[in-house]
Structures are given as C-alpha cells and as structure tokens.
Amino acid sequence: MRLACGELPGWDVCTVDNIAAARKVLEQQHYAVGLLLDRKGNLESEDIERFLQHHHQIRWIGVFNGDLLHRPQLREAIATHLSDFHTLPVDTVRLYHSLGHAHGMAMLAKSAPPHKRQSGSRHIDGKSATICRLRAHIDKIATVDAPVLISGESGSGKELAAQEIHAQSPRASGPFIAINCAAIPPSLIHSELFGYERGAFTGAAKEKQGLIEAASGGSIFLDEIGDLPLDLQASLLRFLQERTIYRVGGTRMVSVDARVITATHVDLPKAVAAGRFREDLYYRLSVFPIRVPPLRERKEDLPLLTEIIFNKFADEKSPQLKGISKQALRAMTQHDWPGNIRELINRMRRAMVLAENRLIMPEDLELAPQEDAIILRDGLDNSRGSAERAAIWNSLARCGNNISQAARDLGVSRMTLYRLMAKHSIAP
Ligand SMILES: Nc1ncnc2c1ncn2[C@@H]1O[C@H](COP(=O)(O)OP(=O)(O)O)[C@@H](O)[C@H]1O
Ligand SMILES: [Mg+2]
Q: What are 54-101's pLDDT values in tens digits?
C-alpha cells in the first residue's frame, strides 16, 4: 500500500509501503490528508478499518481497483471513513481536485493535531487559571522533601496531582506507592501499611514488608486519609516524626525514607473538631496543603479536556463519529460535574460508543435539556420516566459505574437498581 504518491507537486508528501510503516509515521507527525492506495486488493479490510478508525482525524481519500468494490467490507469502510474515492486508472485532475478539497475542509475544521504526550511531560491537563496555579504550586513543592496534603472533591485529580509531585521530585526514580485508606478493612490496614513479623498473628508464617517500607526511596500516597483509624493515626504520626516504624508483632525499629503525600475529600479541620482526626497529625501532614479545583470551577478547560478524552478513547468509538457538537459543549458548560473529571471521562466514553451521528449530541452524554421543557413536551408520566433514567445515569457516571455505590447514592437496593437499569435499557 502507498499512503501518498511521490509525484504530487505542491504537497508535502510522505510515502510508505504498508500499514505498520504508516502507523509509525503518524505517531510522529500529523498529516491533514491521507491517500490510501490499494491497487491489487492486498490489504485486509479489517486492517484498513482499524487503521482508518484510529486515524480518524485525517481526511482520507481512497484509490482502488474498481473490481474490489464488490467487497461489502470495503464498501462499508469507504462509506464510513473516506472523504472521497477513485478507481484505477486515476484521473489525476480529479484526484488533485479531491485532495485540495479534503485539505480545504481540514483547514476549515481547524482540527487540532492529536494531543501527544511526550514521555515525562505533565499529566495534569488544562489551561484555566486555577490549573496553571496548581501546576506552579506543584512545581515548587515537588522539590521540597516535606509532607503534602491534597484536598479536593472525588474525581477531581488528587491522585494525579500526587503522581505529578512524585514525578517532579528528586525521588522520581524511586517507587510511588498508592493506597486508599477507605478501601482496606480497618483490621487489615495496620499490617498493610506497617508490615508484620513472622508469627505476629495466626497465619503470619513469614515476615512481610508493609507498604510504607516498600515506598522507601520514593513516595507513599495515602488516599482518603480522613478514614485512617485513630490508633493508626498515632503510628503514622510517629513515622513522620521519627522516620522509623515498627512492624506488627515486632520490637525492632525499622528506619524508612519515604515521602508522605496524603489526600482527602472530607474537610479535615472539621474532622479534627469532631475528634475523629488527631490535630497534631493534621498539622504534620499539612505542611504544604494544596487544593485541586473541582471541574465546575474551571469549565473553560472543557473543550480541551473533551478533545483529549476523545483522542484517548478513539479506538472504542463508533466508526462514523468525528467529534463533539457545539450543542454538546454548551450542555457540558451548563452541567455542574459533581463527579468531576472522572464523570466527564465516563460520560464521554459512553457517548463515544453509543452516538449514532457524526457528532456527539447532548443526549449522547445524557445531559438532558431543562426539566420544564421535558414536562411540556412529554407529559407527566414520561417526564417521571426521563427524570428517573437521568438520575440513574448521572449517579452511575458519578460513581464510575460502581453499582453498590450508585445504589447507595440513589437510596435504593442493588437489586432495585439492577431492575431499574433493565427497565431503562441502561447497560451495567
Ligand atoms: N487535569 C486532568 N487532566 C487529565 N486527566 C485528569 C485530570 N484530572 C484528573 N484526570 C483523570 O480523572 C480521573 C480521576 O482522577 P483522580 O486523580 O483519580 O481523582 P481523585 O483522586 O481526586 O478521585 C483519572 O482517570 C485521571 O487520570
Ligand atoms: Mg482518588
């Protein structure tokens, strides 16, 4: 196969012989227009399909032998992915015309080149003032070897901020170990964090290193620190002060060199006031407090974030989908995003699979129009149905499709939620 012919005057042309080579070139360089030349029908339709789907941002023009057009898969790939196609022998005038047209359309759409992440570049995307401030803050505290307390709503990017602090710190080549204190049963958390000696309890046949020790030379990220039981808060405080730990059942002091980064979505000063969190530990942890802003405080980042998500999950999208409509972006701006970026990713991924048009519409994101408009249009019974469906959908999106959590959120049992999902044809 050739992607482009060498003899096209006025064009910056790169020619390759097969799909693998084309993939390589396109990883490095963005092209506005691609020419897919398959004289003899050597290419597998499935390969073409996958390749075109992945590089959907390029406007493709096909050149095929007319005999091949009876193949249903090829016909479908042409209809779905190509801006235009020609049969051999090529009428060069018409081909130039076609290329020019595709190029003009590409310039009009001003589709930005696919977002590339250079290795080592930062993960926290966004151009808003609040995100720029956060990044500047992270740059500064990354170099200082002191505890950091990250606060922010669920799904706003706290773990990402922790990873970034570690990646920019002198400890970057050491381990980054993340543990969610809320996800581990309180009875296990002590031995998970601090490890245990042989015979510390029934079943402890061998000694085991804890996660804090495993993070030696790097950073340990304790997520949902507000859920750490009080006795463990004392052990953690001891570690922060002395840089040493005791394993469960041990009398030997082990010194550990790990930076502690913590995160919470609850208001820790309130937990301190209520006696649920040690005040001395709070002050130790919050030497450098940073706040990750919720998505609703930086809605100007929505176009960039949706574009990044669109490109990241392009392999999963329905084939004819080309982008996001203005209406969908407007609906996104009006939405409050209680589940933050995690909710945005969930809604986008679902919409990209389910969308039936060329552009994602507000309905694909389940961002419903105003409620009174629904009632006027649909009558009361249907409005109840739509409201129920929207509530379930929103809750699933917020909870990252976790059924138990969504059921709790909605105040129904898991069984009821499954039944309602079936009723509204919502896939788990
Ligand atoms: N600024 C951002 N740019 C790109 N992706 C982000 C950003 N913030 C968060 N994410 C993504 O959103 C999801 C939730 O982020 P996470 O750090 O786990 O949130 P939290 O720990 O606050 O619940 C992750 O998939 C993460 O990669
Ligand atoms: Mg998290």
A: 787 788 888 888 888 888 877 877 877 888 888 888 888 888 878 887
Q: Do 415 and 378 contact (CB within 8 A), yes or no?
A: no
DSSP 248-264: BT--SEEE---EEEEEE
Q: What is the pTM of this model?
A: 0.68
pLDDT in tens, 332-347: 999 999 999 999 999 9
- Domains, the chain: 19-109 (3.40.50.2300), 129-291 (3.40.50.300), 297-423 (1.10.8.60)
Q: Which residue has the higher pLDDT, 278 or 377?
A: 278
Q: Do the Cβ atoms of 77 and 49 come closer than 8 Å?
A: yes
Q: Is the pLDDT of residue 3 over 60?
A: no
Digit-coded pLDDT (tens) for 255-291? 999 999 999 998 999 999 999 999 999 999 999 999 9
DSSP secondary structure string for all residues of 337-371? -TTHHHHHHHHHHHHHHH--SSEE-GGGGT-PPPH
For 354, the token pair is 């389910």
Q: Is residue 35 within 8 Å of 1, Cβ to Cβ?
A: no
Ligand 1 neighbourhood includes 154 CB (under 6 angstroms): yes
Residue 393 in this model has a pLDDT that exceeds 80: yes
Alpha carbon nearest to ligand 1 atom 23, residue: 155
Does residue 349 have its Cβ closer than 6 Å to ligand 1?
A: no
- Residue 159 beta carbon below 6 angstroms from any ligand 1 atom: yes
Q: How far is the CA of 170 from the centre of ligand 2 (A)?
A: 24
Q: Which residues contact 290 (CB under 8 A, 6 or more apart)?
A: 134, 137, 138, 141, 148, 149, 150, 151, 161
Q: Is 102 in the pocket of ligand 1 (CB under 6 A)?
A: no
CA distances (Å), origin 110, targets 58, 104, 288, 423: 11, 10, 42, 42
What are phi and psi for residue 175, nearest 5 degrees? -75, 150
Q: In ligand 1, which atom is closest to the CA atom of 156?
A: 22
What is the tens place of the pLDDT at every residue in 282-309? 999 999 999 999 999 999 999 999 999 9
- Atom of ligand 1 at shortest distance to CA of 157? 17
Q: Which amino acid is at 303?
A: P
Q: Is the CB of 391 under 6 A from ligand 1?
A: no
Ligand whose nearest atom lies closest to the CA of 157: 1
Task: With beta carbons less than 8 A apart as the criterion, state whether 168 and 139 touch.
Answer: yes
